[in-house]
């Protein structure tokens, strides 16, 4: 009797193994198909944004940018620096308003973002992104003009590096007329990356697997967590953001780009020091519901470290993407700052 039971158990065990093998064999082609799903097609809005822009080359990399001529009688120039993981399209809701105040409105997609090239393997760094901004300014013939920088999130750190170069008269540095920051990890000690960001930046061999398995559902859930509950993007807007990430296989370089979090810690003295020592007019536009740079911790430290900077705090329900969540409030706050000096 005992031998019969053992035999049955062995037979059942073999059948289970065979079943799992069959499941595995079926999963391989399905997973292969999934991993090679092409990116979504560009929406009419994204097609219009891309067709209104152009490209310049930085060290064999094609960098997308938009350059609009706006207000007649003004010579002022503003350059917009976007955040992670999105693109220059983040500025679409305030673009027209900016063109009514500035003679030139310029935005770019950093390398690894948006419609720009996304090389891999590649050592993505804040230093390279700052050099790309300087290259774009030279390409547009604006290197002798004073530039107003408007930045968000990841772009804040790029702006800090540009400011450091300007303050130290580095060759090729752009002439900064003013700097406005918004909801960025300016201080590593008050910056709280999302859980998935921590995994991807430190995940080692696991990171490439996660980036390949990234999909719209997980992307929109993750991004939605840094928007306010009453200012969530529409489904179409989420798809636009995801489409821009997927363009040129951008999801596969997210883990490499996320090394900027470690770079912020390593170069804190350089980048925070640039803000502390500058005489350039400095402003912060802040969405206080931001879980990444939370209130009041972030704002208290900002005001303590940078007491000469002016600050605009938007409504309580505005979170990490203030230019998308409250474009009117954001634009008014920025123009009030620009018109104050």
Automatic annotation (TrEMBL):
It holds the Pfam family Abhydrolase_1. The chain crosses the membrane at residues 20-37. Residues 77-327 form the AB hydrolase-1 domain. Its main location: endoplasmic reticulum. It is found in: Endoplasmic reticulum membrane. It comes from Athene cunicularia (Burrowing owl). This is Mesoderm specific transcript. Belongs to the AB hydrolase superfamily.
């Amino acid at each position: 009797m005992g031998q019969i039971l053992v035999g049955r158990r062995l037979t059942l065990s073999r059948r289970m193994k065979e079943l799992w093998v069959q499941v595995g064999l079926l999963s391989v082609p399905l997973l292969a198909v999934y991993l090679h799903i092409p990116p979504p097609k560009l929406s009419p809005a994204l097609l219009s944004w891309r067709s209104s822009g152009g490209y310049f080359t930085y060290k064999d990399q094609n960098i997308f940018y938009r350059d609009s001529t706006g207000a007649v009688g003004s010579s002022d120039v503003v350059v917009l620096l976007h955040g992670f993981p999105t693109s220059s399209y983040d500025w679409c809701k305030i673009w027209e308003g900016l063109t009514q105040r500035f003679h030139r409105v310029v935005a770019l997609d950093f390398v690894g973002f948006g419609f720009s090239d996304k090389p891999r393997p590649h050592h993505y760094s804040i230093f390279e992104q700052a050099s790309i901004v300087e290259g774009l300014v030279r390409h547009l013939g604006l290197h002798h003009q004073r530039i107003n920088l408007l930045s968000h999130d990841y772009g804040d750190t790029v702006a800090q590096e540009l400011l450091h170069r300007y303050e130290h008269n580095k060759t090729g540095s752009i002439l900064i007329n003013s700097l406005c920051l918004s909801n960025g990890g300016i201080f590593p000690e008050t910056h709280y990356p999302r859980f998935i960001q921590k995994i991807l930046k430190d995940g080692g061999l696991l990171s490439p697997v996660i980036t390949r398995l990234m999909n719209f559902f997980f992307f929109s859930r993750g991004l939605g967590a840094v928007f306010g509950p009453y200012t969530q993007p529409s489904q179409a807007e989420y798809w636009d953001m995801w489409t821009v990430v997927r363009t040129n296989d951008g999801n596969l370089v997210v883990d490499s780009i996320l090394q900027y979090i470690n770079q912020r810690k390593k170069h804190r003295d350089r980048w925070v020091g640039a803000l502390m020592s500058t005489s350039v007019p400095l402003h912060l536009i802040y969405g206080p519901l931001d879980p990444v740079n939370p209130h009041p911790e972030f704002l208290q430290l900002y005001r303590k470290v940078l007491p000469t900077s002016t600050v605009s705090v938007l409504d309580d329900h505005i979170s990490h993407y203030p230019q998308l969540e409250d474009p009117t409030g954001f634009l008014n706050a920025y123009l009030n700052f620009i018109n104050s000096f």
